[in-house]
Amino acid sequence: MNKLLSSFVENMGIEAFKIANRKRTQSKVFRNCNHLDYHEIQSVYSKMEVFDSCEKYGTPVLMNSRNYHHVQVNTFSMASMYKPVSIFEKVYDIFLENKQIYFEEMKNVQSDNKGKDCFIYLHGFSERSYGFEEKYLFSELIAEIPSIEILAVHLPYHMKRSPGNQPYSGAYIFDSYPVVTIEGFRQAVNDVSQVLSYAREKYKKVIVGGFSLGGYVTSFLGTCDNRGDLYIVGQAGDRLPYTLKNLTVCPGLFSKMQKWMKQGIDVEGIYAPLEIHQYTPVVSPEKVVSVAGKYDKLVAFQSVERLRGLFKSRHNINYSAGHIGFLFEASKVKKEIIKLIT
């Protein structure tokens, strides 16, 4: 895809996301953790490990099972062992749906789990279900690599973890306040680490990866948990606080950012715990796969290159499109990833 066509697709896609995510969250939901003072937020997170691994996990409970062509899909839930910071506890306790980890286990109908490989997959922001990936990615991947199984995780506030009063899947992780967002990422990393603990006992090789929001979560996981065999960091860069400041696909957050900046608030500063450069990668360079669009308008290619420099990633896959245009380049990227997996 050339740059001009990519720009058109990107602009149309961003407008579509703006419409789909146009509903705003109610600020009163977060009245107990609506902190906007840089020093207050820093005092909380400067005294702790913001991201850490979790080698324990709750017992997965099978919720339902179905078949999709040659793929068996089992939905599991297990209790999240994540513990929020004290200033977020009251709000966190309201969201009962978010206290459970959900994941779809997708495998060849004839799979026996013995000697199998696993791909822990993490979705993007505001994704409503795994229906698209199941049809166009997971089923094809399993057909090409029969030995692989997918564990598609529902990230905090998304899909089955979406609170009843949330305007759309995933809204609260961004359209809220800094502490809620930071804790959302902390929980995401901790929860994925729990799923990784479960997978390490069951599978021979474990791959972790995702795109957009899932790519960012994977990058933070790479600063605290090295038990994965491969980390696929898709459509994610450094300077996440800067990216959030310009996140037009979340109109609620974008509106808040504009308001806060007019009030003289250092919006990048209050999200500083999400700046990955203050953390040290714990995974070796040969384990890291970075995927990026040359014409991405949501995550600048320069930002991706800086993140690649931080991880010294050995495997870098570039495609000729933007964030939204990835849909048209996905087959090419998938072939490159399959080479690395096999």
What key phrases describe this protein's structure?
342 residues, alpha/beta, Rossmann fold, nine-stranded mixed β-sheet, 38% helix, 18% strand, globular, Alpha/beta hydrolase family protein, AB_hydrolase_fold
Verbal overview:
The model has no long low-confidence stretch (mean pLDDT 95). The protein has a single domain, classed as Rossmann fold, CATH 3.40.50.1820. The protein has 12 helices and 9 strands. Helix 6 packs across helix 7. It is an alpha/beta fold and 342 residues long. The longest helix is centred in the middle third of the chain and has 25 residues, at 178-202. A 9-stranded mixed β-sheet has the order 1-2-3-5-4-6-7-8-9, with helices on both faces. InterPro entries: AB_hydrolase_fold. It comes from Evansella caseinilytica.
Tally the helices. Answer: 12
Q: Which term fits the overall shape? A: globular
Q: Could you give a short account of the major beta sheet?
A: 9 strands, mixed
The termini sit apart by 27 Å
Return the average pLDDT rounded to an integer: 95
Bin the strand percentage: 15-25%
